[in-house]
Amino acid sequence: MTFLCFLVVGTLLVVLQTTLLMPTPVWAFSPDFYFIFVAYLASRFTPVLGLLLVYLLGLMLDVLVGTMLGMFSTLCFAGFACIRLFSSRMVRWDFLYSIPLISLTFFLLSALVYLVFDFLYVGQLVTWVWWEMLIRAALVAAFTYPLFRLLDKLYTYSKNMVYPWKRLRVRSDRPKRRQT
Question: What percent of the chain has pLDDT over 70?
Fold first, then answer.
């Protein structure tokens, strides 16, 4: 049930990212909620379940807004791997340390993915503007804490949720019949 819950949340974040928060494809002030979601998956989920969710998220992003197929998937998988690597090596994974790590990872991986795809497909990408990417990295840093808190609440709710088929049935107050 946790998987389905986070699949729906990831889909909603992609829809929010691609429709409401991005009036034009090159708008600099759109927060990249998908990368924060990938960072949350890397820090809280098992590798197999997290990678499956990252794959589906990257696929949705590539289909909806990708100028080059595989660009967002590469960014999501690389972000998952980097944050998973750093979060496993840190003694204490705390929000104080995770916010700069997530925003710096987003900025560096965006630059690396842009360089690779610009080398492979010369002249087909929008030009890289440093100040716009710094603004987007700052927006990732600004929205990391609230989105992590929201996702933590959702994670605990989905873990503690009682499924309808596992609910206890209420007994009636009538006395039992004696069987002879």
Answer: 83
CA gap 174, 162 in Å, rounded: 27
pTM of the predicted model as reported, rounded to 2 decimal places: 0.84
Query: Where are the domains positioned within the chain?
Result: 2-19+30-158
- Please report, rounded to a whole number, the percentage of residues in the chain having pLDDT higher than 90: 42
Among the four given CATH numbers 1.10.1760, 2.60.120, 2.40.50, 3.40.50, the one describing domain 2-19+30-158: 1.10.1760
